[in-house]
Amino acid sequence: MSNKNLRGTGVAIVTPFDKKGNVDTKGLTNVVKHLHDGKVEYIVALGTTGESVTLSKDEKKLVIETIIKANGNKLPLVLGIGGNNTQEVLDSFNKTDLKPFEAILSVAPYYNKPNQEGYYQHYKALAKATKKDIILYNVPGRTGSNVTWETQVRIAKDFKNIVATKEASGNIEQIMKIIKNKPKDFMVISGDDNLTLPIIAAGGEGVISVVAQAFPKDYSEMVRLCLKHKFTDAQKLHYKLVDITDQLFADGNPGGIKYALSLLKKCEPFVRLPLAEPNDKVKQTLSQLIKKYK
Questions:
Q1: Which of 10, 203, 243, 247 is most deeply packed, by most CB within 10 A?
Q2: What are the structural domains, with CATH classification, of the chain?
Q3: 137 part of the active site
Q4: Is 64:95 a contact under the CB 8 Å cutoff?
């Protein structure tokens, strides 16, 4: 069944750090409140943008507790649990209290480079391990291989609790083939901020966004306009944000969005190794664009 709480703008929330590299719970609370004020539809915790792969188990627990407390049941929450070891992902499902979460976002296994049957069997194992809704996450630029449209449609048809795909392949043709062939209730969610407008025009139902973290009001309104098929109005907001979005990814995510949030005085810009802050040129360009933004 379709999960309409996942329609619209979800935000892949950052994990702020302080100067010493510790999780900054005050900064995280600020960002959650900023998203409330900007009227986004839901929050995604511990995704790629949340630097989940460099957080300890205790830190992940702290991040989850902080987000739940700051959120106060105002917005639906999605939790990122993924990896390239299927059994480890299943263990995480079993060891995590999933009750506060609307769904699980689970990235396609990376580094191992599974074949398509491997992807299918991985998501089959995940679907059978929980009653929670699952969002498949296809991001070939990070994982090193692509979950094809045929495999995604096969997964969508076979497992009713895999309710959506976050598609970040950047391949509009692939995305349109998923939309054309998927079950009616299965949702296609954009994983690329600057492609959200055309993806919704093709039949997608929203986005899990990075830029909406900095500019939640304008970006979530752009998505709502798209969903109402008011594309001329949506284009104005899309093009207002397009240059900023480019710069957020110009020298690595989440370095770009964290620097933008620091300019907006929401949290510090620090990232955790092996990531580093964006180069000076990107910082300068982002500063200029955000200063001019109205």
A1: 10
A2: 4-228 (3.20.20.70)
A3: yes
A4: no
